[in-house]
């Protein structure tokens, strides 16, 4: 029987996969540090020891942790929302304190087997927030990608992006060329081969270009990237912990929801067991390690996890290999001093582009109007409340609770000659799971045919809802089974 302390044997495939991911993570980490308005070296620190710590206890063999765009944006929001600016003397160590708070929340929830708390943020709220946050992230990178970041006036993130787009005279031809090349290499390279190292190639091209054209702004100007290993310290501004608590809780919850869905989907495809509580605790340990090694909060990455899986990873040690490569690279970080800012901006844009889901947001109106309203309200609030985007998440949670109270979940039953179709009406969410299980159990207890769950065109079901259906479906008698209609309106067993 598997325990939290089992030690799977690493394979050669883990080594190859870990190195492959490191080639992507290292340049990405610089860009994600800039989203949080941290020194770029802190991104490298967040890519080293935290990944090694995560690999010790992770449940999924594929999930890769480290700096991610969404968590970096939430880090910026939490710090600025508490009144701290990137120019403050303690800004970097405040990021470490925030990572410790995030890690403390996740480790506590994991050890207490409260992983279900991650679903306090409903799927519609998560989709609305992720789409809005992605637009903000892309907007923050556009001035950099166009070479207009120096000329763009002070103001909101979206305002600066709009100004940059509308003033082509401020663009740098070199920056624009590098942005186009980077996006073509990243997105087009996948058509050549799914493991094509587009980010690595773009970085090499960018460094070579900056060596021939000194007009493009680079990472090492005016302050070169410091070399050497991170120093370990718990000398943090503890008096600021209270001011960062809410932001830390939001990051702990919403920053885990995305990697949880990744790992759950991989486990489903491989027909293996995935432990949400163990993953949550491992992520908590990774963040606490980030705190003592001069970094900021980290989370799971969908793109890097997918590449890890495609590259043939077999055990969780592949993530440890990635962290070890990043740790060894710290002594050679100076090679990235010539990396143009435009390439970093394009790397971020290419990495998060798929997270904007306009078709999903629009399509939700065809299903549950309540869930669509929650998603759109969170989406708009995220854009309007920038940079304090954590309040948009809390607003979405509050609206979810109100929607649950005003329109409790009910299951509509339509029985035909050969099957019973069940259609939920109202919020299927953490607060309604108990009612969902009770109503569904009563329906299947009387069923004389197969039961089909028709959720309509709505977001993916979370793990708790799937576990409830598995549990209830296992109680069915008379050879009957419980099915779910998929996106193509075909029945799939639970």
What is the string of helix and strand elements? Answer: HHHEHHHHHHHHEHHHHHHEEHEHEE
SS elements, strand count: 7
Q: What is the mean pLDDT?
A: 89
Percent helix range: 55-70%
Structural class: alpha/beta
Strand numbers in spatial order across the main sheet: 3-4-5-6-7
Distance between the termini: 24 Å
Shape: globular
Unreliable spans are none
What is the count of DSSP helices, taking H or I runs of 4+ residues? 19
Strand content: 5-15%
Give the C-alpha Rg. Answer: 23 Å
Write the layout of secondary structure elements.
Layout: H1 12-35, H2 40-45, H3 49-57, E1 64-66, H4 69-81, H5 91-111, H6 123-146, H7 157-166, H8 173-192, H9 198-212, H10 241-270, H11 276-292, E2 299-301, H12 302-310, H13 317-329, H14 341-352, H15 358-363, H16 369-384, H17 390-406, E3 410-415, E4 419-425, H18 433-445, E5 450-453, H19 463-473, E6 482-485, E7 491-493
Parallel strand pairs: 4-5, 5-6
Antiparallel strand pairs: 1-2, 3-4, 6-7
Helix pairs in contact: 1-4, 1-9, 1-12, 1-13, 1-14, 3-11, 3-13, 4-10, 5-10, 5-11, 6-7, 6-14, 6-16, 8-9, 8-14, 10-11, 16-17, 18-19
Architecture overview:
There is one protein chain. With 494 residues, this protein is α/β, with parallel strands linked by helices. Helix content is 58%, strand content 6%. It has helices at residues 12-35, 40-45, 49-57, 69-81, 91-111, 123-146, 157-166, 173-192, 198-212, 241-270, 276-292, 302-310, 317-329, 341-352, 358-363, 369-384, 390-406, 433-445, 463-473, and strands spanning 64-66, 299-301, 410-415, 419-425, 450-453, 482-485, 491-493. Strands 3-4-5-6-7 form a 5-stranded mixed sheet, covered by helices on one side. A two-stranded antiparallel sheet has the order 1-2. The longest helix is centred in the middle third of the chain and has 30 residues, at 241-270. The chain starts with 11 loop residues before the first helix and ends with a strand.
């Amino acid at each position: 029987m598997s325990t939290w302390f089992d030690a799977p044997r690493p394979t050669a495939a883990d080594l190859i996969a870990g190195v492959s991911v490191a080639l992507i993570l290292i340049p990405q980490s610089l860009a994600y540090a800039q989203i949080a308005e941290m020194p770029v070296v802190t991104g490298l620190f967040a890519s080293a020891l935290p990944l090694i710590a995560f690999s010790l206890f992770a449940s999924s063999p594929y999930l890769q942790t480290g700096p991610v765009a969404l968590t970096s944006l939430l880090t910026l929001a939490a710090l600025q929302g508490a009144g701290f600016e990137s120019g403050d003397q303690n800004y970097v160590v405040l990021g470490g304190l925030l990572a410790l708070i995030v890690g403390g929340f996740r480790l506590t929830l994991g050890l207490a087997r409260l992983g279900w708390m991650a679903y306090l943020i409903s799927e519609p709220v998560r989709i609305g927030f992720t789409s809005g946050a992605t637009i903000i992230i892309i907007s923050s990178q556009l001035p950099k990608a166009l070479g207009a970041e120096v000329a763009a006036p002070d103001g909101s993130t979206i305002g600066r992006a709009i100004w940059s787009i509308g003033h082509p005279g401020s663009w740098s031809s070199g920056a624009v060329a590098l942005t186009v090349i980077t996006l073509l290499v990243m997105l087009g390279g996948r058509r050549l081969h799914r493991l094509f190292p587009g980010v690595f190639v773009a970085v090499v091209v960018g460094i070579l270009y900056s060596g021939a054209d000194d007009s493009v702004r680079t990472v090492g100007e005016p302050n070169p990237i410091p070399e050497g290993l991170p120093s370990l310290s718990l000398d943090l501004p503890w008096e600021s912990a209270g001011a960062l608590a809410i932001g830390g809780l939001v990051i702990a919850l919403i920053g885990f929801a995305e990697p949880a869905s990744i790992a759950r989907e991989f486990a489903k495809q491989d027909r293996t067991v995935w432990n949400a509580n163990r993953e949550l605790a491992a992520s908590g340990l990774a963040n606490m390690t980030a705190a003592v090694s001069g970094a900021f909060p980290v989370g799971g990455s969908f793109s890097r996890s997918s590449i890890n899986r495609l590259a043939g990873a077999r055990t969780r040690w592949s993530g440890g290999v990635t962290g070890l490569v990043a740790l060894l690279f710290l002594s050679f970080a100076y090679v990235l001093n010539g990396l143009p800012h435009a390439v970093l901006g394009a790397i971020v844009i290419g990495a998060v582009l798929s997270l904007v889901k306009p078709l999903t947001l629009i399509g939700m109106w065809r299903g549950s109007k309540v869930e669509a309203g929650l998603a759109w309200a969170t989406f708009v609030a995220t854009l309007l409340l920038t940079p304090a985007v954590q309040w948009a998440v809390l607003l979405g949670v509050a609206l979810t609770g109100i929607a649950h109270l005003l329109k409790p979940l009910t299951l509509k039953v339509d029985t035909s000659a050969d099957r019973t179709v069940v259609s939920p009406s109202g919020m299927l969410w953490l607060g309604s799971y108990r009612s969902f299980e009770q109503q569904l159990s009563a329906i299947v207890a009387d069923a004389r045919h197969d039961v089909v769950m028709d959720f309509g065109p709505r977001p993916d079901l979370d793990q708790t809802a799937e576990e409830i259906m598995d549990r209830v479906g296992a109680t069915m008698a008379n050879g009957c089974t419980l099915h779910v209609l998929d996106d193509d309106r075909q029945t799939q067993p639970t």
